[in-house]
Each structure stands twice: as C-alpha cells, then as structure tokens.
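Exercise: predict the fold of this chain.
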Amino acid sequence: MEHRKMEREDIFRMIEGGKSHGTEVSENMPDDRVYTIKDIEALPEGERAELIDGKMYRMATPTLTHQDMLMWMSVKIWMHISEHGGGCKVLHAPFAVYIRNDDHNYVEPDISVICDRDKLDEKGCHGAPDWAVEIVSPSSKTMDYIRKCTLYEQAGVREYWIVDAKEKSVFVYNFEHGTSERYAFSEPVKAGIYEDLIFDFNEVV
C-alpha cells in the first residue's frame, strides 16, 4: 500500500462498506436520553465510556497489540519532547479530555499531546489537545474513523492520527491545513506539529 491522500468520503465508504469493519461496541443506553459528564463520573469502578453530543459509548478492554503500540508511541513522543526542550505534555489513556468544555462531550484519546498547559489540571484536559492519536481496536472502527474524527476537527484539534494495526496503516489528518493522508506501516510517518519526529512502525510490528 502506498502513501496517498485520502478524502473523508473515501474513509466513510471504507468503513460503511464493510472493508476493515469491526464489531462496534454500541451505546447500549436509551437512544432518547442525553447523557452528561455526571453519568461518566457515576460509572462503576473499572468501567470506561466516552460521550459525544450526549450519547454514551462504552469502551472495550484494549488488546495486547493496542497496548504495545500505545506504549511505543507515547515513549517516542515523550523522549522527543524531553530531548528538544519542548513545553508540550504527552499523556496516554486513560486520561480525561473535556474536549468542548461542556457537559455532553468527554473522550479519552489513546494519546494526547497538549501544548497549552493552562488547559490542564488534576481532572484532565479542558479543551482540545494539539495532537490526538487513536489506536484502532476491532470494536472501535466507527468511533475512531468517523465519530471522533468529526468531533476532533470541530473542537479544534490541530492533528489527528488513526493507527490501524490490522490494516498496517496510519491515517494522518492535519486539520490546520485541511489535509488527510494514508501511510503504510512500511513508510516513515512524520508528525506535523514537530519538524523532526518521524515514526518507523516496523520497529513495533
């Protein structure tokens, strides 16, 4: 698979048409109810969920591959920031992001890079991260490719990556410049918000 630009419609067709389609963990809550942050906070210990426009989506337990990728990427970003004296903070899930600063939207990106530290307190991040990364699990295809992609763009995330280990591909959205591209794991993938941070996914797969 070669690196190529992707239109949003191409990705929607890929998901809705069944290619790379996983079993979605649906919101098994009444459709007519609007959920809030208080409902998230009231979940039993050990249960995690996210909110998008008042709909609650339960989160599945991550796989070994997911966690390997999460740790590798988090450490790589942290080391880059540390070595270059950057002021941004990298945080991995579970970490609360109150992305619209309202009662009806709450997410836990797999990786969040936040450069405005005024957004951070002990509860989480209040507002959009600069860079969000989601590592796709079989249960999270529609959530990561469609729902979160739309939310992150609208909320002001500068850059969004979807890392799909099954497809061995990385979708890179640079919302600042209105571009979207797809890379194979065999290709180097450069971070948009850092000039010299490049990922070689062959190191982890």
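Check your answer against the key: The radius of gyration is 16 Å.
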